[in-house]
Amino acid sequence: MPKYRPALPPRDHQKRALRRIARPNRYGDVFALLMEMGTGKSKVVCDEWGARVVANKLSDLLIIAPAGCYSNWIDDHEESPSEFRKQLDPALFKRTLFVKWVSGMGVNARARLNAMLETRNRPRVFVVNAEALSRGDKATNACRAFLDSSQKGAMVVIDESPLMKGKDSIRTDTILELGEHKKIVAKRILSGLVTPNSPLDLYTQFQFLDWHILGFRSFYGFRARYAIMQDIPIGVWFDEKGERHERMQKIVVNYRNTDELHGKIEPFSFRCLKSECLNLPPKQYISRDIELTKDQKRIYKELQENAFAKLADEKFVTVNMVLTQRMRLAQVLCGFTMDDEKKEIHEISERRSSATLELLSDYSGKAIIWTSHDYCVRKLHRIITEEFGQGSCAQFWGGNRPMRGEEELRFKTDPECRFLVATPAAGGKGNNWTVAGLSIYHDNSDSLDYRLQSEDRNHREGLTAKGGAQSVLYVDLIARGTIDVKRLKLLRNKINIATQIHGDSYREWLI
User: Fold this and answer.
1) Three-state SS string across 419-470, please?
2) Is 441 exposed, middle or buried (CB count within 10 Å of its CB: 0-12, 13-18, 19+)?
3) Among 95, 139, 252, 468, which one has the highest count of C-beta atoms within 10 angstroms of its own C-beta?
4) Can you tell me the distance from the alpha carbon of 410 to that of 245, in angstroms, rounded to the nearest whole number?
5) What are the sequence ranges of the domains in the chain?
6) Is 70 exceeded by the pLDDT of residue 31?
7) Cα separation of 392 and 482, whole Å?
8) Which helix (H) or strand (E) covers residue 117, if one does?
9) Which residue stretches of 218-290 are H helix?
10) Which residues neighbour 78 within 8 Å (Cβ) at sequence distance 6 or greater?
């Protein structure tokens, strides 16, 4: 029987992961690779699948991954070859048929897909962006057809598995349904952090593997065991007399039995941290205080206390839900808001942009500027270009999807392009930007997944190699006494809970 020979030998921690996967368990061939970003989860998948194909134990691989990183599996660029080209046995790579789902497929892409579905005598890899599973049946039907046509069985991998944490989403339901297909012989979930927002994120991820692992067929039974619920006000409304009333709803306020959760998932998972296997310099964190302008203070206070504010042009912005209020307050801190009448954006004087320019002026290398707001991407790109010249700044966000690859390549290879403005939603996963030694958080969201994923775009293997930045400094822009601080405290609390479930030691962070 031929022997599998990977293009690159696995490292010690990757060998340990492969040995753990190979152990039999009572719930079948299911496993969670909970390896921190940059430790080589994809390498483990490539080697396991490749070895099993060579051993004639299966023939196909279906990978479902977020749009921001699914192309990394099979796209092949001169500067960043695909994972399979880098890792897979070269002989097997030549025999394997690779196809990537492309929304709005043209004639050639559709022909490649149909040819793959008709192929029976070659190993096949089909990579699908998870978002496509939420937009109609075309991608879902293609996945079903791929599994239906498998000759020797398929492995299904969910990359960045927290993408299916929403129990009632179309995407989650679709993935769970696909996971029951009779041609699947092995299931894997991949994540550096399976609880990016709460322990409840575990439910659908491990339900995909096997519900017996957590022991609950019902999400509500699972929640009752591990969450503490309480009635709290989530919004306000005013009656005809102008009197203020609170709207109440039962929500999660804390968690319990987290050690028990760790004990349940530990036998079916492999945990690995960068600090355990990579020789990287520690992350460095600092903050810079941002003073609010007079307009920001007024509008912020009015929104906070009265749930409405008057803009300079007599337009009004109102708030009637707590979540909406948090969003509006965060927008004000970034220098804009939207009125209720025409939903138009209104600029507010602010100092956050000038602070960003000052930081960039004091730094001689390449830098990433993270923001959660599309408005801020456009504004920061404009003012950075005005300050440092045309070609000095690249973008990576939802508004430039067709140009992302070119923008990323320019940032990584062009010495004149020193800055990249990105949103964590678009650029926070799967990208390798180790050329940047400075990361500025212009603002934060409530998502721990977005924060930690984005931090590790440049703190990963390659950082200390030739051409890498050698170290990374993270700077948070913070307006004291505002939602900026509350969000950082929320993220700190989520980190603490996640370390309990993963069994990690205390993690140093900004706060």
Assistant:
1) EEEECHHHHCCCCCCCCEEEEEECCCCCCHHHHHHHHCCCCCCCCCCCCCCC
2) buried
3) 139
4) 54
5) 12-219+267-274, 284-291+351-502
6) yes
7) 32
8) helix 107-118
9) 219-226, 258-265, 274-277
10) none
Number of other residues whose CB lies within 10 A of the CB of residue 98: 21
Query: How confident is the model at residue 95, as a pLDDT?
Result: 93
Q: Give the DSSP letter of residue 236.
A: E
Q: What is the pLDDT of residues 461-498, one digit of tens each?
A: 889 888 888 999 999 999 999 999 999 999 999 999 99
Select from 215, 190, 261 the least CA-distant residue to 17. 190
Other CB atoms within 10 A of residue 220 CB: 10
Check residue 311 and give its pLDDT.
Answer: 53
Exposure string (b/e) for 312-330, b if CB count within 10 Å is 16 or more? eeebebebeebeebbbbbb
Cα-trace Rg, the chain: 24
- Output phi, psi for 389, to 5 deg: 105, 160
Q: Please report, in angstroms and rounded to a whole number, the separation of the first and last CA atoms in the chain.
A: 55
Whether 377 contacts 319, CB under 8 Å: no
Place of tokens 């339901």: 173
- Residue 484: C-alpha distances to residues 369, 443, 488 (Å): 17, 8, 7
State the Cα–Cα distance between residues 196 and 497, nearest whole angstrom: 10
Using CB atoms within 10 A of its CB, is residue 211 exposed (0-12), middle (13-18) or buried (19+)? Answer: middle
Longest dimension (CA), the chain: 83
- For the domain made up of 12-219+267-274, the CATH class stated in words is alpha beta
Cα(352)–Cα(333) distance, rounded to whole angstroms?
A: 8
In words, the CATH class of domain 284-291+351-502 is alpha beta
Residue 323's pLDDT is 66
Say how far apart CA 401 and CA 34 lie, in whole Å: 29
Q: What's the CA gap between 225 and 243, in Å, rounded?
A: 39
Q: Which two tokens stand for residue 229?
A: 């619920």
Return all residues near 324 (Cβ < 8 A) that are at least 6 apart: 235
